[in-house]
Amino acid sequence: MELLYLFFSIVSTFITSSFHTLLLLFRLISHPRAAAEHDHVTLYEGVVWHTRRSPVHHSFQYSVRYALFDLDRSPNVPPDHFSADEARRISRTNGPIFLLTIPPSVGYEQNPLSVYYCYDVERSSRNLKKCIAEVTNTPWGERVSFLFDPKSDIVAKPLHVSPFMDMLGNWSIRTTAPEDDLSVDISVQHPELGKYFRAILTAKKVSSKMARDQASFFWLMPHRVAIWIYWHAVKLWWKGVPFIQHPRYQSPKYREEALLRDEKLQCCPSLGSNKDSNQTIEASKLSRVAEISSKSRCFTWRDAKWPWC
């Protein structure tokens, strides 16, 4: 059934994107001197590297383009994200908030990772205090958001991001402040496979001359990301990597289990890679775990959209 939904999604996206591409071409022809940049948006271009070491070696890289929005000042922020005030409340900061994301293009959105940079202002200086990661899985479109320390942090894996990865282990994550260049580094620490997966984004700021129009700059960018995801999923399947069903079919309380594992990480980081950190949660502990984690990590889940729900 999920293969049928995937086929329907691909066909629908093709039709919608073709129509919006024609509209974009018409606009560019009608207004050849389109604005070079949008207010309070910084554009970046870079590369994403993926490396898997187990159970087979598999690595690839692809070019990517991102936009950094000033959420307090930009009038053209993509929908379906936190506002500046919501991000400040979650991060408990008092300064500006910037969102790094891949904007939708010609009617399609594909954004595995967005990052909110949350600053504190003290006197005349501002410091990057916290970040919020917003991770979306493919093809289901589920999302989890959580707070992390940009210098270095470790988070219990809270989302089924790939059918070729189980829910065990933790994400080690760090990022630099977005200036002339930026980087985001995420690795998976598994109780049995060790540090077997790593993803790195590096990008540089793009001059306004290079990006004549934001819509053109990001044309088909989400589509290219999706193609890379599906193509390398096929390659992993061909190499014999086991296909893992979504945990909602086998362990419906996987989110509560992630809360408990993250609580253990924060209380005693040395237990982060132990097998017993992945035990099933007792019902009596759920409310206590949710209360503790909501005050510290601030996990927020969004369910899959139709037709995956």
UniProtKB/TrEMBL annotation:
InterPro entries: DUF1365. Keywords: Membrane, Transmembrane, Transmembrane helix. Pfam families: DUF1365. It comes from the Eukaryota. The chain crosses the membrane at residues 6-26. This is DUF1365 domain-containing protein. The gene is LOC113723445.
